[in-house]
Amino acid sequence: MKKSNKRSPLKSGFITISSSLLAIAVGLLLGLVIMLISNPDQALDGFAMIIKGGFEDGMAGIGQVLYYATPILLTGLSVGFAFKTGLFNIGASGQFIIGAFAAVYIGVKWTWMPGNLHWLAALTGAFVFGALWGFLPGLLKAFFNVHEVISSIMMNYIGMSLVNMLVKRTVYDQLTNRSQAVAFSANIPKWGLNEVFPYYSMNGGIIVALLFVAVVYIVLNKTTFGYELKACGFNPNASKYAGINAKRNIVLSMVIAGALSGAGGGLLYLAGSGKFIEVVDALAPEGFNGIPVALLGLSNPIGILFAALFIASITVGGFNLQQYEFVPEVINIITASIIYFSAFALIFKSFIGKLLTGRRRPAVGPDQNDSEGPAADAPTSTPEPRIEPSEGGGAI
Amino acid sequence: MTAAQLLYFLAQQTMFFSIPLLVVALGGMFSERSGVVNIALEGIMIIGAFAGVLVIYSFQETMHGQLLLLLALLVAAASGLVFSLLHAYAAINMKADQVISGTALNMIAPALAIFVARMIRSVQQIPFKNRFHIKSVPLLGKIPVLGPMLFQNAYITTYIGFGILVLSSIILYKTRFGMRLRACGEHPQAADSVGINVYKIRYAGVLVSGMLGGIGGLVFIIPTSTNFNADVAGYGFLALAVLIFGQWKPWRIFFSALFFGVLKTIAAVYSVIPIMQEWSISNDIYKMVPYIATLVVLVFSSRSSQAPRASGQPYDKSGR
User: Fold this and answer.
1) B216 CB contacts (<8 Å, ≥6 apart)?
2) Domains and CATH numbers, chain B
3) Which one of A149, A180, B10, B186 is most buried, counting C-beta atoms within 10 A?
4) Nearest Cβ partner of B295 from A154, A295, A346?
5) pTM of the model as a whole
């Protein structure tokens, strides 16, 4: 569809991005309204705190943002990658925690490994086990017509209980009811970043995450494989007709999505920041935060990078918010409303498009319009593959 | 405990777990049969349970017993309905992606519940006193076998759940509204062409699901807990599985809710079942079983799926 807008690729990109910004603006506004209702005296100061986010505390604050952005950048890439194939990977949470366990297990047990390989092995473990957790929903989707949303939700809960059990059996610290600390050599190197950004949890994880962004960008945009994946997302029937093996691509897409989430788990729990796997019956929130990141980033790796930084920044803002009489859940409400409004992307885009062109679309029926091929000023074209239940079944 | 007592105990417990699944899955059925996928059920349950528990918490010193529970159920239904309006608006008016909108609601719900709770009480849990337990229903409780299984150690929510089941089945198959609802989920263009307002019917479907989802949330919390912590333990998602396994049909939904209820019961009370004590299996495995069973069940039921054809697709009048 993007090619239909050859005349103004820049403009169409601008419209797409501004629809994300509009969702953010409306979400933030809603947050402000809630704050005004709950505590009118401090609402404006508190809101300013959210907007300032990580920029409140100079380089240390930015370090904090980078630290919080790292895991959700990976889960955002994961959700976004699956979106490109028309799949909704809501199972990032399970993949994330399974990856985290693999990383912690290797980090605690494989102390025989040389220092500079140990963390790499632990991270690879996270990558592989996350992939495994994405493999099953992909398989069920491709060969048994089970909708990936429902199966990966189940995988989230199975992963949660499985990790609880495995932690208790292998790397358990009974006193604190959580996993043991990983060996020092399993921590991701800091590469001097902690000196640039004087935040106590600062580590090289963000560099690794940026590498993943680059790899995903190349795979999606510069390889035949990525092209096939996107084709399946745009139009499954046409790609099947063109000889693309859709089933294989569904499975692979979920495997890669799972691997990315798993790596996110590894990056967080190998950060050397005093993070342990707690034995509790709660799903990992980092997985769900990948969804707004992917939606805001429009499933584009570069967009996802900025979205992750934004979400991390308002999260840090939420921590700072506690010096006023606010509960940090305001941030969750804001992010959730941003997702809600980004679901309106289609309407937002045509709205902004109309504003820009100052002209309404010709008043003919849309089917007639579509049959004419790409309309000259059709800003409503959707670069996002829509997630639709497959014919006749697999609906949620 | 004798074998009979154990059986009665398990039957009673199964009701506690099955009835909320039944009610919520029936809610999901109304939404999906009208053509709107509703994965926001989890969030709707949280909102319903939150509002209901808040009512109980506020009035438990002045009101007693079943009347308070009924009031709380009404409030739960109303709040679920209002919350589901958000989904209806996104899915029907804005033609938004229904899965994304549902996910957003699932994330808003706990945040909102915690936010309001902390505004009121400064902690996120809301405790309540459970005075709604019925030891034995007069007369009915004395029926041999059936009495102890269904009419002792129970809550009125169980009977309300059965009432909703019968009513849903009648509404879906015997009323004009039910037939229109099904038509909108199968072929909205055809329904529109004979003068049915697809948007209105779909709104009705989503709102009914919001109402039942809200009720289901409270029904789940009352027997299983004494405080509400902005969480319904993934029951909304399980209800979706129940709905698929039940093939979008009320009575099949009932049996699949029973099936999942039994699994959940075993996970909750395996320690009192003599054989299972000896197996000494980790309780984490029991917790996993319902979800693994869901996956297995989905593998077998999704191939011959009878999902409403237009479910999940926004209806565009001009696409007729």
Assistant:
1) B20, B21, B23, B24, B27, B45, B48, B235, B239
2) 3-319 (1.10.3470)
3) A149
4) A154
5) 0.87
